[in-house]
Write a structure and sequence with these properties.
Layout (H helix, E strand, L loop, with lengths): L1 H12 L6 E7 L10 E4 L5 E3 L5 E5 L6 E5 L6 E4 L6 E5 L21 H9 L5 H6 L5 E3 L9 E4 L2 E4 L4 E5 L2 E2 L1 E2 L8 E2 L9 E8 L13 E7 L7 E7 L3 E12 L3 E12 L9 E13 L4 E16 L3 E2 H5 L13 E19 L2 E18 L14 E22 L2 E25 L3 E26 L2 E18 L7 E20 L2 E11 L4 H6 L8 E14 L2 E12 L3 E4 L4 E4 L3 E15 L2 E14 L15 E10 L4 E10 L2 E2 L7 E2 L2 E12 L2 E8 L7 E9 L8 E8 L4 E9 L1
Parallel strand pairs: 1-7, 11-16
Antiparallel strand pairs: 1-4, 2-3, 2-5, 5-6, 8-9, 9-10, 11-12, 13-14, 15-16, 17-18, 17-45, 18-19, 19-20, 20-21, 21-23, 22-44, 23-24, 24-25, 25-26, 26-27, 27-28, 28-29, 29-30, 30-31, 31-32, 32-35, 33-34, 35-36, 36-37, 37-38, 38-41, 39-40, 41-42, 42-45, 43-44
């Protein structure tokens, strides 16, 4: 607490140092460049621009050189003519050059990896946006409309239990969802609107609360479009996608645009998916004064689909069905989401600003699944329906202030978050052919409120950065059981304190070493919480990372880290029972390696390698495997971006064999898939094609060890049930810009 008192005294009495340079970093359209790095080469003091492109750097003497850098822009060196001057610095956009990259001396320096990737990798689907995170794998297993299954750092995260995901400050994860705790459906995002991807692995970040154990991903949309455009994509399996991006206002003070998307596909399955999705997104950014900026976004998404579902190995091996056949082809679902956000940024002075983000989301979901076929009901089958309607209200408010004291500089951050979820008629029922309800297992209303508060410091002293953080979260869980004869409303409360500490040593602009320690948590489903009288509401996760970010060559950026993560309680969602099963304590240890290399001005290589050992701590030796926890994953690729307008890439992703049950007697087979894309841009048009699964390998996108019984069988069998991965798939792309 002493360090916090020191900083508050600093803020109260003002900065002792008067030698400072402030200003703005803008692009050629005079729009702010956020998080540009400014380094005084004379003494290595540094800072970065804020949400309005502003910066203030201390201890600058006349004649000092300020080095300004940002990925995708030409770097500049400005010589300070005198102290206390305000600068307006415009950076020219340029092709990415890894030689220009400076490893930023702050705790989120690892974002240089995704900054590089988003500049050179085409993002073609909502699924692709998650694949931009190094080491993250996804899998789809319900007709294309359901949230993807996520794998990261030795976790089968299911749909989001151990990763926090947000878009423009709007939470994507759904608490106490009808299909699983933390359910994160990203299909409402139009990938062409994404401007920036912020990510972090482990529970070390002040502004990340619930589900931030394995890590977090935060997407930010563009404030304006470079141009309006129309895009058409058409390919195999009756797949067509239409995207329209339209600039509506583009003045010095106000920018706005509208983006639309329509996607249809039957998929490679014998029973067509009949998948369709509609997206519309609008954003207005207006600078009310030099100190006030208001941003408004609105979006609507709706989707429905049929699904062939997961199929058992024995049905394929016996010839009963093909790999793309179905046991119950009446699965499927529908979902929609409407979002509204208002963001107000207030610049208080050269040292501080406050950002407030209000959001509301209206959400509906209905899903029909059949995991076990005729195990429980030999007559009607085991199909289930999961359904809910939801309203989400929330506020994120953050105050940031920079300070200088003696030879120390830094920033203080204070944040407040409030979120309320009201899920009505959260239902689990047995059904037949999606039309007949046989019986209702669960139905009720969930009201869950999360209040969070955090405070953190970034203290720069010489080459060291110290970032202590303290976070507090409180939850109130209320459940009304619509099937209970007593019609009682049950409630439970819990709170958790999460300290975190990031230590960074900036040896040079080409080498940063770090140690991160922290506590995070994931919450339990409200229905389970109240049934257990508040037990295991907020089990904690404790982790540490030891690593470095290094440029051993001018055009080679590497990251290597050793990490460990302990969980007080694993959560496993059992969908057909509507419960979350605790599975005890666990420990994961692993190594992450990422490399980005530019061999020529137009040629790039990328490689991510991840190894994890995941074990349950409460099981006997030999019975302690964590089902579906990935052991080894690799992602690599070659990218070409030539000044002639030709671009393209070859991408490989590999996941190794992994245990599907606790004793590893059932194995989920690994796979290696290669994708190809080629594009050509000329003037106002673009042409291209993409091939998924270039070598047409047979691979299983998702796999589970499941006990099931087919209609013709007298006894059940436990074995791998899977959703087949996409076979060779080609689509063409045409884009017109105006």
């Amino acid at each position: 607490m002493k360090i916090y008192l020191i900083v508050f005294l600093i803020l109260g009495f003002g900065s002792i140092s008067a030698q400072e340079v402030s200003g703005k970093v803008l692009d050629q359209q005079n729009q702010p460049i956020i998080y540009a790095q400014i380094i005084n080469t004379a003494n290595n003091n540094h800072t970065h621009t804020d949400i309005d492109g502003r910066f203030l750097i201390e201890q600058v003497s006349e004649g000092d050189s300020l080095h300004i850098t940002h990925i995708g822009y030409e770097s500049r060196i400005i010589v300070a003519a005198q102290t206390d001057e305000k600068l307006i610095i415009n950076l020219n956009a340029s092709p990415i050059d890894l030689e220009e990259i400076v490893i930023s001396p702050d705790q989120r320096a690892l974002n240089v990896i995704t900054d590089i990737d988003t500049k050179i990798n085409p993002v073609n689907s909502a699924q692709d946006v998650l694949r931009q995170v190094p080491g993250l794998f996804i899998g789809q297993h319900a007709g294309g409309g359901k949230a993807e299954q996520i794998f990261l750092r030795g976790f089968d995260i299911d749909h989001g239990t151990d990763i926090t995901i947000s878009f423009d400050g709007l939470p994507v994860n759904m608490v106490s969802h009808a299909h699983g705790q933390g359910y994160a459906d990203l299909h409402f995002i139009i990938p062409e609107t994404i401007d920036n991807i912020d990510f972090g692995k482990g529970p070390y970040h002040d502004d990340q609360g619930n589900f931030n154990t394995a890590g977090y991903v935060s997407f930010k949309s563009k404030s304006k479009l470079e141009s309006s455009s129309l895009k058409l994509e058409s390919g195999a399996f009756n797949t067509n996608r239409f995207v329209g991006m339209f600039n509506t206002i583009d003045t010095e003070k106000t920018q706005s645009y509208i983006a639309t998307e329509y996607l249809i596909s039957d998929g490679p399955f014998e029973s067509p998916q009949n998948f369709n999705r509609i997206n519309i997104f609008g954003k207005v950014t207006s600078k009310l004064t030099d100190q006030d900026k208001l941003t408004f976004t609105a979006s609507h998404f709706s989707s429905d689909w049929d699904a062939s579902g997961q199929i058992p190995n024995r049905a394929v091996n016996s010839g009963l069905i093909t790999r793309f056949g179905a046991i119950d082809n009446t699965e499927g679902g529908s979902t929609s989401r409407s979002n509204f956000t208002i963001k107000y940024d207030k610049l208080i002075n050269d040292n501080s600003y406050i950002s407030n983000n209000f959001y509301y989301s209206k959400y509906d979901f209905e899903l029909f699944s059949n995991f076990t076929f005729f195990l429980e009901d030999p007559i009607n089958g085991d199909q289930i329906k999961q359904k809910e309607g939801r309203d989400i209200f929330g506020l994120n408010s953050e105050y940031l202030s920079s300070f200088s004291w003696l030879d120390m500089q830094g920033e203080m951050t204070i944040g407040l978050t409030i979120r309320n979820d009201q899920s009505k008629d959260n239902e689990l029922s047995n059904t037949l052919n999606k039309t007949t309800t046989i019986n209702t297992i669960q139905r009720g209303n969930v009201n869950e409120t999360n209040l969070g508060f955090y405070a953190g410091l970034e203290i720069n002293r010489g080459k060291f950065l110290i970032n202590p953080v303290l976070r507090f979260d409180q939850f109130k869980n209320i459940y009304y059981d619509g099937l209970s004869l007593s019609k009682n409303t049950n409630a439970a409360n819990a709170s958790i304190v999460s300290p975190k500490l990031n230590l960074i040593y900036n040896y040079s602009h080409d080498l940063q070493m770090y140690a991160k320690l922290g506590k995070g948590f994931h919450s339990n489903d409200t229905r389970v919480v109240v049934a257990q009288n508040g037990k295991d509401i907020l089990p904690a996760a404790y982790g540490y990372d030891l690593g470095l970010i290094w440029k051993p060559l001018p055009r080679l950026v590497t990251n290597i880290a050793y990490w460990s993560l302990y969980l007080e309680e694993e959560f496993v969602y059992v969908g057909d029972a509507g419960i979350v099963e605790p599975s005890g304590e666990s420990l994961r240890n692993g190594v992450d390696l990422s490399m980005r290399y530019q061999a020529a001005n137009w040629l790039f290589f990328n490689l991510d390698v991840n190894y994890t050992k995941a074990r349950s701590l409460e099981a006997e030796n030999g019975e302690d495997r964590i089902p579906l926890a990935p052991l080894f994953t690799t992602v690599g690729g070659i990218k070409m971006i030539h000044e002639s307008g030709i671009s393209g890439g070859l991408d490989l992703r590999h996941i190794g064999d992994r245990p599907a049950n606790e004793d590893n007697s059932i194995v989920a087979n690994g796979y290696t898939v290669v994708d190809l894309n080629v594009n050509y841009d000329f003037k106002h048009c673009g042409l291209g094609f993409q091939i998924q699964n270039l070598f047409n390998v047979e691979w299983n996108e998702t796999q589970f060890a499941t006990t099931s019984r087919l209609l013709s069988e007298s006894i059940p069998t436990e074995e791998i049930h899977f959703t087949p991965g996409t076979p060779f798939f080609i689509k063409g792309i045409f884009e017109f810009r105006f």
